[in-house]
Amino acid sequence: MGRAIIVEITKSTIYEWIRGVMADNQRVYYSSDIIHVSEITSCMRKSYYARLYPLRPREAVSLVLMSFGNGIHSQLQEYLVLRGWMSEVEVSWDLRYFKLVGHADLYHPGENIVVELKTTSRIPDKPYPSHVMQLNSYQAMLRAKKGYVVYISRNGEVGVYPHKYDKQLWGHTIKRAFHYYFSLKKNRTPRPEPSPLCNYCPFRWKCYQERVVR
After folding, report:
1. The domain containing residue 45 runs over which residues?
2. 89 CB-contact burial (10 Å; exposed 0-12 / middle 13-18 / buried 19+)
3. Exposed site from 46, 55, 112, 152, fewest CB < 10 Å?
4. What is the pTM of this model?
């Protein structure tokens, strides 16, 4: 087969390439028997919509910013793997009706430490609750008492927040997992979880419309 001929490269071409990279790296789950930690530690209504529309287009500028973040993420992982760390460690927890799975960004088996990496426009004063919940879930599955949420901003600043495993938070996370599981099984949209992040959600108008109808 011959190679496709590129007639002209435009801004749209570059954005489309980046969109393809993001789509190829997107974890999509179609079965309600498998639920990812990131789906229940963030807004579950957004996660529910993402399952229905997994390749929903994002704003072009947002795609570029996300790809920059993923690049730093990957480079750090590659660097630390050569120094005793493990990256993208798959973890799971059997909850009988379904399996809760996750991928810890970094894990050091010798020190039993979990690190969750996040890129952001600015360093928050304290870690976001969803990120702490995500890290805590990985700590539970890996039985790691010590963990860190690490923020890397696009202006070069870094924020490091230690976290001690919280058993009560893990119990709350499991409750959320069951709520999400039954929402998927019954084709019922999860309850809304309003926050400042709603302004950046690609499904905000659909969410708003459903809330108005109800």
Report:
1. 11-213
2. middle
3. 55
4. 0.81
